[in-house]
Structures are given as structure tokens and as C-alpha cells.
Specification:
Ubiquitin-like (UB roll), DVU_1557-like, 25% helix, alpha+beta, two-stranded antiparallel ribbon, DUF7479, 2 strands, 2 helices
């Protein structure tokens, strides 16, 4: 697995930094720490995050 501190933004060539990122789904908002470019704000979403934690949150929101 690639180390988060070694991730580089393809657009800006800046090193990604851990930051609180706000996500919205079905009219609800939640925050999660994810690697983000300090220059352009692009967020890196790992497959692990998308298929794990975010999928769990989506299911919970859809069940409500």
C-alpha cells in the first residue's frame, strides 16, 4: 500500500496533506480525514475508504 505522505497531486505536483474533508450524500453532510492537495484542494479517496467507511455511511443514510 502506498504511504499517504508520499502522495503527490497530479495537477499541482504538491505533496498531499491530511485534512478534514466534508462529504455530502442524500442531503446529509459528514466530515472525514483524507489526503488533500494544499494548493488546489483535490482529495485522494483510496479504494479502501470508498468501499469501506464511505459505503457504510451510504448504507446507513439510505436506510433512514
Amino acid at each position: 500500500m502506498e504511504e499517504k505522505s508520499s502522495l503527490i497531486c497530479d495537477a499541482c505536483q504538491a505533496r498531499l496533506e491530511e485534512a478534514q474533508v466534508q462529504f455530502r450524500y442524500l442531503g446529509k453532510s459528514f466530515r472525514y480525514k483524507a489526503p488533500r492537495c494544499p494548493v488546489c484542494g483535490q482529495v485522494y479517496l483510496s479504494a479502501e475508504l470508498v468501499t469501506g467507511r464511505m459505503a457504510d455511511v451510504e448504507r446507513q443514510l439510505e436506510d433512514k
